[in-house]
Design a protein that fits this description.
It is a single chain. The chain is α/β, with parallel strands linked by helices. The chain has an 8-stranded mixed beta sheet. Strands 1-4 form a two-stranded antiparallel ribbon.
Length: about 260
């Protein structure tokens, strides 16, 4: 493992501590599964409703966010909310928990494939790794070989990202053809479904790999959207997923 000693990872640090925590998977195929989350910093997109905006919304950038109008909200100082840690230190943070299911999340973790591959190699055998990604970056072969599941969340127009940034055909086709990938679409309103159906057809995404999730950061907003989303899932044969961690803990970090 000595070859990885100099490798470093940029990990989110919104509350003075690196965001590596033990909870349950709140979304998608493995809903409810106890998991250790490693939240990387940095993202190549800037979703207007993002609930981990401390991974990309730096001071001096022009990106819009729904919280801009809130009193006291301001962009983040990158020096305060990003921890650049050696891989073996991140591995020790993971090993403190009694769990072998690891969720690599962000931000956009695929921006740090080299560092995350080093982390996976350092942790060794016996761990299961899933990646939460926006689906814009194709994984390198060595990285792909260590991943058990990709939770691909393509961003729609409701994210406020330009189409040329959020929709990368080469990456979408890779994930659509991977048996390791599931697609989780965040639905803010009924109008989003036309866009979702076009993407599914354009990239030949298998129906059994599609999950629809309501956008929301409160139990009430999630429940309201789920009422009509379940009918959409029944019509097309998609899966419905909620945000279980929001329903249990509320809109909090590190849970």
């Amino acid at each position: 493992m000595h070859e990885y000693k100099k490798t470093r990872l940029k990990i989110a640090r919104p509350d003075a501590r690196p965001e590596v925590f033990y909870s349950i998977q709140g979304e998608g195929k493995n809903l409810g599964q106890p998991s250790i989350f490693v939240r990387t910093s940095l993202c190549n997109l800037h979703c207007i409703w993002c609930d981990t905006d401390y991974t990309w919304n730096w001071k001096g950038t022009r990106f819009a966010h729904v919280r801009d109008a809130e009193p006291g909200y301001e962009k983040f100082d990158i020096r305060k909310v990003v921890a650049e840690l050696p891989v073996d230190e991140v591995a020790e943070l993971v090993r403190q928990y009694p769990c072998k299911n690891i969720v690599l999340t962000g931000g956009e973790p695929m921006m740090q494939q080299e560092g995350l591959l080093a982390l996976m190699e350092t942790l060794g055998e016996g761990y299961w790794f899933e990646v939460e990604t926006n689906g814009t970056i194709v994984p390198e072969p060595a990285f792909d070989a260590r991943i058990g599941q990709y939770n691909v969340s393509p961003k729609l127009a409701n994210s406020n990202n330009p189409k040329k940034l959020r929709e990368k055909p080469k990456a979408y086709r890779f994930f659509a053809g991977s048996p390791k990938a599931v697609f989780k679409f965040v639905i803010a309103g009924q109008g989003d479904m036309e866009e979702v159906l076009r993407l599914i057809e354009r990239y030949d995404i298998p129906v059994h790999q599609v999950y629809l999730m309501p956008e929301g950061t409160s139990g009430n907003s999630l429940m309201e959207k789920q009422q009509w989303l379940v009918e959409v899932c029944k019509k097309y044969g998609f899966h419905l997923t909620s945000r279980l961690h929001i329903l249990i803990y509320g809109n909090k970090r590190g849970v």
